[in-house]
Amino acid sequence: MLTHAQVWSAIDRLAARAGLSASGLARRAGLDPTTFNKSKRITAAGRARWPSTESISKALAATGTSIEAFVGLIQGAGAPARGVPLLGFAEAGAGGYFDDGGFPAGAGWDEIAFPGVDDTHAYALEVSGQSMEPAYRDGDVILVSPAAPIRRGDRVVVKTRDGEVMAKELKRSTAKSIELKSLNVQHPDRTIATEDVLWVARILWASQ
């Protein structure tokens, strides 16, 4: 018998596989952005609220996921959490924490447990400050994979050769440059020459 927690965990895993937050998955599916938020999973009276079959169907269509694959996510929703390296976003620009490919390296990393993470290269960054609002807020933790494929529209972490680290949305990537959309309208979009980019890694999930 399916449980309330299993189904909602599967939706979270579906969003993570698409590199989205729960609200991002809802938006992509054409639903109200709060449809899959944690605050909507329990009623005001304290009763479990289940996602509708229509909302699940739209989420599957939006991510190109079959019902069989979603059942697999439900069955794997109880998988044990795995520890992944954790670093403060502010420290990510310092030397010694990453190799040239953007993979975690060296000492100084903490660790945090994430359920259902099967990417052995994944790591987590803790957001500080307000420069990435409203997408990510101070204290949010984002799960990043330097090995995941990246496409236009994905949220990514970029490190430049001068040590700057930023989270943006990838607008366009060519042989000469990458165009990045800011997550905060108060900050400008960026175009960076490819030769000035050390690495780009895809954001898989965010705690919100």
Question: Could you characterize what this model shows?
Answer:
The chain has helices spanning 4-17, 22-28, 53-63, 67-75; strands at 81-88, 110-115, 123-126, 141-145, 155-160, 165-173, 177-181, 190-193, 197-206. The protein is globular. It is α+β, with helices and mostly antiparallel strands and 208 residues long. Strands 2-1-3-4-9-5-6-7-8 form a nine-stranded mixed sheet. 20% of the residues lie in helices and 27% in strands. The two termini are 29 Å apart. The mean pLDDT is 84.
What does the largest sheet look like? 9 strands, mixed
Mean pLDDT score: 84
Percent of residues in helices comes to: 10-25%
Order of helices and strands: HHHHEEEEEEEEE
Measure the end-to-end span: 29 Å
Radius of gyration: 18 Å
Proportion in β-strands: 25-35%
